Amino acid sequence: MDLKHIRNFSIIAHIDHGKSTLADRMLEVTGTVEARKMKEQVLDSMELERERGITIKMQPVRMEYTYEGAKYILNLIDTPGHIDFSYEVSRAMRAVEGTILLVDATQGVQAQTLSVLAMAREAGLIIIPAVSKVDSPIARVREVKEEVAALLDISADEVLEVSGKTGQGVVEVLASIVKNIPEPVSEHGAGGPFRALVFDFGYSTHKGIIVYVRVLDGKAAKNDTLVFSQAGEKFGALGVGIFHPDMVDTDVISAGEIGYILTGIKKPGIATVGDTILTQRSPLPALSGYMKPRPVVWASVYPESQDDFMPLKQSLEILQLSDSSLSFEEEVSGVLGRGFRCGFLGMLHMEIVTERLRREFALELIVTTPSITYEVEMRDFRGSSDSARRDGTEGGKRQVIYSPHLFPDYGTTSKIYEQWARVKIITPPKYVSPIMSLLYEHEAVVGHTELFGDNRTSIEVEMPLRELMRNFFDNLKSASSGFGSLAYELIGYREADVARLDILVADEIVPAFSKVVSRRRIEREAEDMVEKLHSILPRQLFNVKIQGQGLGRIISSRSLTAMKKDVTGYLYGGDITRKKKLWAKQKRGKKKLQAQGTVDIPHEVFLKMVRGGEA
Questions:
Q1: So what's the pLDDT on residue 42?
Q2: Res 253: pLDDT
Q3: Sequence-distant (≥ 6) Cβ neighbours of residue 573 within 8 angstroms
């Protein structure tokens, strides 16, 4: 189709502001999905997405819409709203010319609204503002339209009103897309050499890697010989097509379109997001690509059985094809065996990835307590036999620590550095007081505070990333009755006052329970963890000590009593000395077990400890 009849756009918003519902109505109005096949969150194909009611992975779809007698192709990329998946949003923006900025009329502008708006402006996109859920009885339509208008420096009358539930305003949004978003630009058009940007992946057991592309120049067809620019890998296209919203094979995909190419490649590490696909010996240069995402949270993932190590590795490689922000590398633990140190963009991202590994690949996993990256300077012991020297670490030099159980022992470091984040919080004014108490609890430094709109306050703070990842988002929602929102950015390393906390079970350190905590909270944290483990760990055949160790000493301790078995239950009457002999034998057996036995910690216990909260 002619470029002037193509429009490429995305929908961006804070989480739960109605992106997927608006996309549903668009598919309905344009007849892309038949009414009998229509369901809620039709673009959210993952079981987890439908369960949680959130978008986790971006999803492209092609719609056809007739406006003033002319037929247009509208290519939508639906994006996630949670801050952990902002890398998905940034990639989608590079593949389109415009975006719909959606704001919930019942909640107004949120912190993530400002974050995604900044990304859209940086990408140079045309922005179509709209307020959603205008049919709600608690909607503040006029007030929220004025908030959005103030953000974009436009008239409030230019902000569209839409309801994904009733379909109100959807036709006006589609018309605005056609009128305001520019047609895609191609240097060489459909007749020139082929060039396409890879913005996402899929994977099929039979067809290999499926690359999602925005075609910039030329056209590609089945059996064409193409090449990945970065990897230099040639492949023959097994097929090309579009998303409707399911994958539909076509003869060609041309300049300006969004579609997919079946590569047949099953080897990991060849295809990367941001790569350019060209024809062999193409005269066109490769595109600049995407910035590599930086993991924010690290956790080690081990198979419960070491027989599952290779299946876990293959599963992570397959997941990485559809989630390029996931990073991992192999590591070995003396207690847990071989596993992988994985980097995630946040706590929700970690939870989603580990849950997908369990569900989609039927793996039983042990996931260690999540941690951020630390940089430590070791003390110079000048040839002493201290553990710092045994580790081969030179005094005074910085080393990067990803996992809590690898954090140096107490007394071996001279300085410790941790990442900090600049956080923007938006909340109704009546919740400022409990939020301030929460910020103090999480070691935040409060900066600029101002009224935002008619009934919201904007608070800018700086805080350790460690504290931001310590359930701060959930605590903020509780403190603000669900009305508070946040967005954050990393601002570098600062000196930290932290230490490693280990949990010992039967005098053995359990690496999965180790964590790095603030020194001022280490005693309370140790008591809480020991108490929690004591309440959920099944009783053994012998007494088990559970201890919290930090700052070079045992901080907290509980004893889990052994299971009781009445070894004299089958006896009746007779001399008491016979019973005493059996009790003594039982006592000797328990002592032997306590000296030699190991504690079997079930998979569910690891899960409950890592998730935090109540047992």
A1: 60
A2: 93
A3: none
Query: 474-483: buried (b, 16+ CB within 10 Å) or exposed (e) per residue?
Result: ebbeebbeeb
At residue 276, φ and ψ (nearest 5 deg) are -110, 135
Percent of the chain at pLDDT exceeding 90: 27
Neighbour tally for 456: CB within 10 Å = 21
The DSSP letter of residue 239 is E
Structure tokens at 220: 């590609």
Separation between Cα atoms, residue 365 and residue 381, nearest integer Å = 39
pLDDT digits (tens, 9 = 90+) for 276-292: 999 877 778 888 777 77
CATH class of domain segment(s) 3-180? alpha beta
Distance CA 581, CA 590 (A): 14
The backbone torsions φ and ψ at residue 408, rounded to the nearest 5 degrees and listed phi first, read: -60, 155
Looking only at Cα atoms, what is the longest distance across the chain?
104
- Domain span(s) for CATH 3.30.70.2570 in the chain: 499-611
- What tokens appear for 447 in the block? 């900066």
Strands (E) in 481-563, as ranges, are 485-495, 498-505, 508-509, 515-518, 544-550, 553-560
CATH, range 195-279? 2.40.30.10
Q: CA–CA separation, 98 vs 112, rounded Å? A: 18
Distance of alpha carbon 569 from alpha carbon 584, whole angstroms: 15
Mean of per-residue pLDDT scores for the chain? 84
Other C-beta atoms closer than 10 Å to the C-beta of 550 total 23
Residue identified by tokens 């379909």 is: 167
Instruction: Please report which helix (H) or strand (E) contains residue 351, including its range.
Output: helix 347-361
Instruction: pLDDT band for 486, please (50, 70, 90 cuts).
Output: confident
**pTM reported for the whole predicted model:** 0.78
3-state secondary structure of 196: strand
Q: Tell me what pLDDT residue 262 has.
A: 92
More confident residue, 41 or 102: 102
| Range of lowest pLDDT (63-72, 398-407, 427-436) | 398-407
- Distances, alpha carbon 243 to alpha carbons 5, 46, 74, 97, 212, in Å: 18, 16, 11, 18, 10
Given pLDDT bands bounded at 50, 70 and 90, which one contains residue 615?
A: very low
Q: Map residue 241 onto helix, strand or coil.
A: strand
**In the beta sheet, which residues pair with residue 489?**
422
CATH of 375-496, one of 2.60.120.10, 3.20.20.105, 3.40.50.920, 3.30.70.240: 3.30.70.240
List CB contacts of 315: < 8 A, sequence separation 6 or more.
357, 360, 361, 363
